[in-house]
Amino acid sequence: MIQRRNFLQVAAWGAGSVSAMSFAKGRRPRVGVVGAGIIGASIAAYLADAGAEVIVFEKEAPASGATRASLAWINPSTVNADYRDLRLASMAEWHRFQERLQLEVTWGGSISWSDDAEKAKNLDQREEVLRVTSANPKHVTEAGIKALSPYLEPGETRAGFYLPQDGHIDPVATTQKILAYATAKGAQVLHPCSVDEIRLDRGQVRGVRTSTGDFHPLDHLVSACGTDTSALLAKVGVKIGMNAVPGLKIHTHPIAPTTRKVYDFSSALEWKQMPNGEAVAIYVGGPPKTPTHEPVYAGALRSHPTQELAAMHGESLKMKVARYWPALKDARVKDVIVGYRPMPLDGLPMIGKVPGAAGMYMVATHSGVTLAPLLGKLAAQEVLTSERLAVLAKYRPERFL
């Protein structure tokens, strides 16, 4: 009962809207958002909806970082009950977000399974944590997976479950559409445009100077820049560590449609099929930790050094997935993406005011696609009202200071 009540408390924030506000002195607050991935885009959309003057600073192009490298699976799966509730609330918000912005979301469910004894224990824990919620997990065996997805060859299944309510998106197209909504509400999106200096006056944010040489006066600044979070906070003297977890993603040319689901094998391989027939797969674990791969783990490799190496790694990932999804065997790989997932040191979101820099706010998290609608709404609420929402109490950045 406590778990259900906690979920309802979180969901209550997801059910409302950050509507246009009346601001003191008749002037709309000027809010800068650093980062135009799906988290930054969602924050900008809610801020603009509320009537703020919003300007987004993106050092490369919208959705070019972690968002582009994401499988973009919307799911509640975790072993942490409080975090599960936050994810479930954001899934509910996704349906409202989808309707309001006319976004394309595929709600086809997901199947997770493993043939490894240790990873099977983790799957069983995740299933148990979800069992008391509306996620409605269904335990599956090898035969059960085949019944749900006849095109799969799942092999030995020590543990597994099906989540019927999960979804997935095209992360780049969706982010672009969210930004288009924000700009229609008056927001500006500047790219390529990095923040070089954050100007403070007696500890209060006054504005930023960018790589274009321009100074932008601001009342608030929101950090939503993923793996660049630590570097941005360092500009105001705040030291918070972040991990950048490497991964590999491929897109194939379209193949015959076989599924609307997302698949997670042993928390190492994840894949799906887009409505246009493209197969998308990611390798979650990163490459072996050898001297050759030192640039990857240092965060210095943003693409393969040669087309031949990219093709080799892309084909290798495709064939790993084809072992379980034979339809992929003859597919042609068209894109190979090296990406880095922003990961707070304890794996949980960081969201809230930046200590020591009044007017500065931060959002940094893994699972940005799942969490974007809810965290975007709650961040906008806190920035514009100075409230500290109880549902975010466990995710404050102060826990690392």
TrEMBL record:
<dbReference type="InterPro" id="IPR006076">
    <property type="entry name" value="FAD-dep_OxRdtase"/>
</dbReference>
<keyword id="KW-0560">Oxidoreductase</keyword>
<feature type="domain" description="FAD dependent oxidoreductase">
    <location>
        <begin position="31"/>
        <end position="381"/>
    </location>
</feature>
<dbReference type="InterPro" id="IPR036188">
    <property type="entry name" value="FAD/NAD-bd_sf"/>
</dbReference>
<protein>
    <submittedName>
        <fullName>Glycine/D-amino acid oxidase-like deaminating enzyme</fullName>
    </submittedName>
</protein>
<dbReference type="Pfam" id="PF01266">
    <property type="entry name" value="DAO"/>
</dbReference>
<dbReference type="GO" id="GO:0005737">
    <property type="term" value="C:cytoplasm"/>
</dbReference>
<dbReference type="GO" id="GO:0016491">
    <property type="term" value="F:oxidoreductase activity"/>
</dbReference>
